[in-house]
Amino acid sequence: MTNLLRTCVAACTPKSMPAAVRTAFEAELRRARDAAPDTDAMWDALERAHIISQAWAWPHTRAHWHMFRLAVRCRDRAETVGQVVRILVAGAGSVTGRVPYGNTGRTAAGLLTPMPLPEDLRVLLGRDRARPAAGQSLGTVS
Description:
mainly alpha
């Protein structure tokens, strides 16, 4: 089932993640795993992984899956429910380019709330501004 989902998402995603971006994304997921049991450090790494992944459906969904697992581990009911909603819409948002620029992916951030990018991620993702114009979404990274 996972392979079928991955195949479907890949078919709908026009661009693959550049190697440097993929490396940074996987490093943040690894940093989250290695930070256990420090949940604050785990959330920080997963938020960064989320920001990096927003333009690509499968990585974006994976980031929310890891956030869901951490929310369950933390027994945070509101975050768990919020991550279920985000898992359901993350891929579609990435495919359509309707994701909030720089959003950390947490429930407290709001589903469609754009946020400023950390400087290192702005450079990694090739963004020329730290904050988007009103109504601008992340879309695809070129």
